[in-house]
Model the fold of this input.
Amino acid sequence: MPLRTAPDDRRWRPAPLIKASVLLHAGAMAATAFSPEIWPWTGGAVVADQALLTLAGLWPRCGLLGPNLKRLPPEAAARNEIAITIDDGPAPAVTPAVLDLLDRYGAKATFFCVGERATHHPELCREIVARGHAVENHSLRHRRDFALLGLRGFSREIEAAQETLAAITGIRPRFFRAPAGLRNPLLDPVLSRLDLRLVSWTRRGFDTRNGDPGSVSARLLQGLNGGDILLLHDGNAARTTGGDAVILIVLPRLLDAIAAAGLRAVTLRSAILFLGSAGPGPGSHEHYAQDRADGSLGFVPRSGAVSGL
Ligand SMILES: [Zn+2]
Done:
């Protein structure tokens, strides 16, 4: 059974802040037309609103511009599930060692891959999936100015990555993470059209610029709990003084702590889109076989698990 049950599920529903901004702009224009002398006040209100929208876009965990997944749903937390997400790959010097570490602990992870990098290393993307992990969308080129793009720019970057990753792995990504977590109000309608859900994180280790495994681990482990979404990087990874990618030192510590806390590392799609323990195992090939077979996810989502994401 497809995940989507109603054709309008993908319709963009503007967040309250977006609706309020549209009303404010329209009201300011009408008021200024009626009483031109009040333009400093109406202009000031519009500028303040624009500043608020910009600030909201610069705050990766902000939900004011639209749905933004920062934690797994309560059902997944109750199952003691936790999501490790690994961005900016695939990276041939790091990703294979990350996969070996995950295997050693029986852990599953979600890899937010960059489309162009996937094109250069398609075999790595397929290996990620073959080992039971998930490949999701982290844009085509990971542009530094991503948050400044408009509707067409967002569409190009995200749709091209979507097609690239689907062609390589045979599975359409269902989640998107914005480069650096930055965005603007025009991102949401594009994600809705492509049936993608925006994901940020509960905690991140800042492991692209911090080469100290101790402080990266401490950040990630602080308050470790079921339902957490943690962010690490295989691409663009900072190096330790010994020259290792930080994730390779941090990951065993994290996986030890996850095991000690009685938690289970699963993919985002396993925790959110699929049946829990009643369905096939998290990240199992049965999931992907269903994905490939009919272009849909093929499993009934847990009641209410998808709404509001
Ligand atoms: Zn990134």
